[in-house]
Amino acid sequence: MYRFAREKAGLTREQAAEYLPICERTIAKIEYEEITPLPAVADKMNDVYGVHHLSMWYCKEECPIGKKYCYEILNNVDLSPMAILTKYRQEAKEAQEGLDRLTELMLNKKGEADCTKEELEEIRHWGLELLDLEHVIETFKLRLWDFLNVGELIKQHNEKCIREKYVIKENNRPGQLYRLFKKSLI
After folding, report:
1. What is the mean pLDDT of residues 48-54?
2. What pLDDT, in 10s, does the model give residues 87-142?
3. 143 and 156: one domain?
4. Contact 46, 57 (CB under 8 A)
5. Percent of the chain whose predicted confidence (pLDDT) is above 90
6. DSSP string for 88-129
7. pLDDT band at 183 (very low <50, low <70, confident <90, very high)
8. 102 and 86 together in one domain
């Protein structure tokens, strides 16, 4: 993957080493899968090579959280922007139905123990519908790289979340969503 990305960018190992900056030998070891690049190096490769899915692939293959939560990159569907947007409209409609039903199902319930077997099965069903929508959104983000610097959009979004105080930065305390996410991993 790394060698292909470098070659597609038209760079020799020597040129790539200059841009990254790491030594040629390290690039060779990464390309021959003898070592795994550090996250910062993989992210820089993403920019230098202009292969914008490289960091997503790295996250899926190398990061413990990414391995658990990243989706497979779709390779057997029409990935034209219009096809993705059409699919989004369909999935969003189904997801809205799911949100409405989940609101009814989960009212006054704190967890699995508060649900019947049938309710849990329906929650599972609607959860899958929501993941379908999320998958389409992730696919669209991949295609957005052809039009925009999505990394910059994400940075701006994160800055907005900090401004709006969705993220608590004082005393290095993680925000509520992070605590919720961490709790779900335990």
Report:
1. 81
2. 999 999 999 999 999 999 999 999 999 999 999 999 999 999 998 898 888 888 87
3. no
4. no
5. 42
6. HHHHHHHHHHHHHHHHHHHTT--SGGGS-HHHHHHHHHHHHH
7. very low
8. yes
Domains held by the chain: number = 3
> Which of 69, 87, 113 is the last residue before a domain boundary?
69
Kindly state whether residues 138 and 159 are assigned to the same domain: no
Nearest CA-CA partner of 105 in 79, 129, 81: 129
The parent domain of residue 186 ranges over 148-186
Distance separating the N- and C-terminal Cα atoms of the chain: 33
Do 50 and 97 share a domain, yes or no? no
What is the 8-class DSSP label of residue 40? H
Q: Are residues 64 and 12 in the same domain?
A: yes
- Using CA atoms, how far apart are residues 168 and 40, in angstroms rounded to an integer? 24
168 close to 175: Cβ distance less than 8 angstroms: yes
The CATH number assigned to the domain holding 11 equals 1.10.260
pLDDT at 60 over 80: no
- Single out the residue of 86, 18, 65 nearest to residue 9, CA to CA: 18
d(CA 146, CA 142) in angstroms, rounded, equals 8
Token pair recorded at residue 138: 């992730």
